């Protein structure tokens, strides 16, 4: 059985679960179950096409010709991208590419340089 934590605001032991929330009847404080689990979670690990772990500031190389949305040009294979930033979402790399500007890339189309 899962134990229900005390209220983080008033430390009351009379809290109860209501759907995806914990509720304290004494001070009416509500907090989500996700808040409890996020405290123990680690950062998301992003890997390139070869399985190498990527970090902020790494340099990567594009391994496939990629069409650039909103432009008639393509990002060619072998294009080197410096100083990447890892972000949450489907496109998990945020970067600036010379000649293209700011862009988001998927980690499955790059390899660590």
From TrEMBL:
Pinpoint the Protein YjdM C-terminal domain residues.
46-113
Q: Extract the Pfam families matched here.
A: YjdM (PF03831), Zn_Ribbon_YjdM (PF08274)
Top-rank lineage group of the source organism: Bacteria
Q: Where is the Protein YjdM N-terminal domain?
A: 3-32
Q: Which InterPro entries match?
A: YjdM (IPR004624), YjdM_C (IPR013988), YjdM_N (IPR013987)
Its family remark reads: Belongs to the YjdM family.
Name used for this protein in its record: Protein YjdM
Instruction: Say which species the protein is native to.
Output: Planococcus versutus
